[in-house]
Amino acid sequence: MAITKALAEDILAHQRFVKNLQGGKRLSIKAADLSGQKLNRLSFAFAGLVACNFARSELMRSNFERADLFGANFEEANLVGACLRRSDLRGANFQRAKLIDANLDEANLQPGKVMRFGAQGQTHQLVPVSFSSANMMGARVESANLTRADFSNAFLMQTGFDRSDLSSVNLSKAILSGAKLRGAKLAKAVLDGAKLDRADFTGADLREASLRNVNLSSTNLTGCNLAGAVMPEPSSDTDFRLEEVVVAHQAWLTSGGGQGTRAVFDQKSLPGIDFTGADLSGASFRGTDLTGARFAGCSLAFADFAGAGLDGTVLAKANLSGACLAGATLCSADLSGAVLTAIELISAGGQRTGRVVSTDLSKADLSGAKFHGARLTAVELAGAKLNGADFSTATLEACDFSAADAAGAVFRASTRPSA
What CATH code would you report for 241-419? Predict the structure, then answer.
């Protein structure tokens, strides 16, 4: 749904306002529907946006600093690199939103008091901020008030929560690998089933927190207050047997399928997993959650990543020749120095078949992805989202960019797309 002409003019007037230009006017609207809009790199700093709906909108690197976003809805919005510093986000909804590298320092993320009308008349209800299933990899949320916020199933790898108030928050099944929570307040927080490898809780307050079913072997708990905390029970190792699967796949490759087993990870949840340097040519990852995974230097020729979640994944110097990544999400993924070329299929007997397979990135979401120095030959990019993707110094030959959205993409010192 397109926004009205009057609202579009008000947004433009606000751009002049933040730059202190003549004709500028501060934006102040309530409950406006801005869902599904492309609003990348715009400034909403100091704006009044109470209860506005930004669901599914593109807001990459937009600026909401000190904005009033009480009760705003950002469900499934793309806020990669956005600034929400010192904004009022009480009662806001960020379910399944992308907030990779976003800045929420000193934001007010407490529950918001919302007015309800029902059989009992007018009542007020406290609604916690929800980041359920959101991707906040590398985001900064330092010195923020997050009391009672919901981060269940959120991807918070390397997210910074230093000195923030996370009292009574729900972090159940969240991925907090490498996250920083130094000096944070986590009294009565629920971290059941969370992934806490390499997380730093130095000096954190974890009184009466629940830590059931977590592995703390590589977690830094130096100086923590754990009085009354529910600690994990010792349990047997039931983790995914990665090494065994990779070894069996190697045997399958070297024997031409006569021995071992092809690696199939379809529909698995493997965020943050490290495959660095492995040969996974022909492996299948269809629909797999690989957010923040590491494939640096991997051989992934003919691998199948169709529909996979690869946001924030490291694929630097990987060989993706003939790989299928159709419909995959690779927001802010690092493909620097990667090779994505067409490759000929060879028969089991080592004979040439004459059938050439291109790397398929059709309809993939590559927003903010880095292709520095990568080599892309005859790559299928039809219908792909390339907003903010960086192809600096990349080689692009005979690639299909038909119907691709390349707004904000960077092609410095590289071969530009022909279509």
Answer: 2.160.20.80
